[in-house]
Amino acid sequence: MSDRTIPADGIGMHLYTMREALAEDYPGTLRRLADIGYRTVGVSGRFGHSAKEIRTFADDAGLRIVLEHVGYGRLTDDWEGALADVRTLGGEWVVVPSLPKELRSPAGFREAAAAFTVAGRAARDAGLKLLFHNHGFDFAEVDGEVLFDILVNEVEPDLLGFELDLYWVVNGGKEPIDYFRDHPGRFPALHVKDMAEDGSWADVGTGRLDFATMFTEAESGGVQQWLVEHDAPTDQWQSARTSYQSLADLRY
Questions:
Q1: What is the 3-state secondary structure (H, E, C) of 124-146?
Q2: Using one digit for the tens of pLDDT, what is the confidence trace for 207-225?
Q3: Domain Xylose isomerase-like TIM barrel spans what residues (predicted)?
Q4: CATH number of 8-249
């Protein structure tokens, strides 16, 4: 360990965590997150607002939007529109959050790899980068192949990166630090989500994941954004505060 800290402008909130607050008051929620200390956000759900409106809310709060989650179906259904919206938001990355259940096989992941290659070129042409967000089931080994690794190995690095969800990597039986070492530069964004002793979600810093050790290889992994996420916080604002402070105080 050293005295390295996460850059202040790299600590963000993935807004799925705050969906109840966003549904009630989107602009007010962004202002409160900025008051806590967050500098960036990842968009997940618009709650009836346009991309232009959300960009205005973020600008007014002093937050930078770095990415938006866009369903896999959009790859063939108005992908250009999805890319245009991410550009309107001011984001760098367009993120596919999961694959349809019917694609969770080696053949399905190869189909997705081909689709990501095409979509990744269009994203690159638009000045953006396509990322994929993992869940635990993506690390299943089927017929001797780890499904997630098919995407890592079969799509060119300049066409597909990853928003690595640290909780789900561990849940899937793998170690994030190994991916950072083995696939340099592929992981510009993280979901920093902690794991309680019973395996459920926990506020960052209160669970059992060793983020300090993981992050010793974050530079190798190409990490630029550490986005807090909790899928089901008991108190979303307490979770946001605790998680922010844990990342701000972390030495690795």
A1: HHCCCEEEEECCHHHHCEECCEE
A2: 999 999 999 999 999 999 9
A3: 30-236
A4: 3.20.20.150
